[in-house]
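Quick check before the chapter quiz. The format below is the same one you will see on the exam, so make sure you can read both the input and the output lines.
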Amino acid sequence: MPDYGHDLMFSAGLVPAAARADEVVALAQLAERAGLDLVTVQDHPYQPAFLDTWTLLSFVAARTERIRLAGNVHPLPLRPPAMLAQAAASLDLLSHGRFELALGAGGFLDAIEAMGGPRRTPGEAVAALEEGIRIIRAAWDTGAPGGVHHRGEHYRVDGLKRGPRPAHDIGIWIGAYKPRMLRLTGRLADGWLPSLPYLKDVAALAEGNAVIDEAATEAGRSPSDVRRLLNLGEELPVERLAELALVHGVSVFTLLSGDPRQIQRFTAETAPAVRELVAAARTGGQPREPQAPARLTGTGVWDEATRPTAPDPNPGRRHTPQEQAAGQHLVDVHDHLRAELAQLRDLVEQVAAGTIDAGAARSQIATMTMRQNNWTLGAYCESYCRLLTMHHTGEDTMLFPRLRRAEPGLTPVLDRLQEEHQAIHKIIERVDRTLVAFVGDPGGLDDLRAAVDLLTDALLSHLSYEEHELVPPLSRHGF
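Here is the expected output.
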């Protein structure tokens, strides 16, 4: 099936366990700090061990600033559509456009009936969901005249006043598996959200896509109007996720996990690698234009506008997957540096917020790949700076000379990269000085944070520039 071309998103799927309420909220905050795009929460109102999902989502929205939110999924039989429309619009307004609405027809019939909900046949459930979607969309359409009138078999509203209007066009995603639900998804929905463990095999994705695409086309829509999402029961290899994106059109991957280390790894290692593979495939192996990371400081280490670029000696050439692997190796090394930097920043922020003590910090640092015998924040900072210095030294003494000989046109770029290495080393020295001061006086935490922010700005900018300039020649020469 086709790649529908949507930007990739990576998400954490949480269980709203009432016994671990604070932990669930902390996991959502961790997902945001780590850089995930979305956090979703299961919605099973009949489960007494669970928090109410709407209440939890509202609480999480107030405790976060950037990450998008969604239920996974809301059972319509227990969420009347008129009330659901107002609740969704309200949460979207309060979160400044960060809410998406994921719906299901309600699969646990006995539990739904026990709570006073209707017991519907499969056909009735699909019909009710279609009615519900139409009511919800009409309630959000505040530009239409008059009230909402709908007299269906399952829902009736007579003169429902429209509004409030959401802060953005909320996407309606449907959890669907059977043909009738899939056709409904193609006709009316903005996204298809199945769970991989419930599909009989990956081939079911292709079958589901075909049904959705046909229904969308018959309804006068484009198949790409329906985003394809997928709940993952476990971590999958990077190559497998890239295949799901390119072959089956999946663009939102939700890892169902309550393990903070797994969430961080999914964000820092898996997501960047999948994005690179998919981007390379979509552009025929050509590198993406570098995107300047959001700056944390107002201090410019260098003028990015003066960076030279190297001419392509063979424009239009497509590199084989084997050739691309050499350039991808550089990206993999850089992704490791970015991931470790993210963990370092997270530890500094947790210390600043007072959310971890020495024992907790020691436990977290023990899971990191660059751990030392001295389990302290200081030891981790030292090890990261040492690894970064080793990486740059290796490039300066081994990689860059080979590239100069193989492709003289790269010389201005390589000279600039070495200059930036020296600038980054000076920042590392600053980090080291502030670290020594912090160890002696915890009151120096602000200076340490400022130094780490400056290192972050400089390093992320440098890595992006280096990848854009060196990945193609590495692919050409196979170093």
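If your answer matched, good. The CA atoms of residues 239 and 274 lie 7 Å apart.
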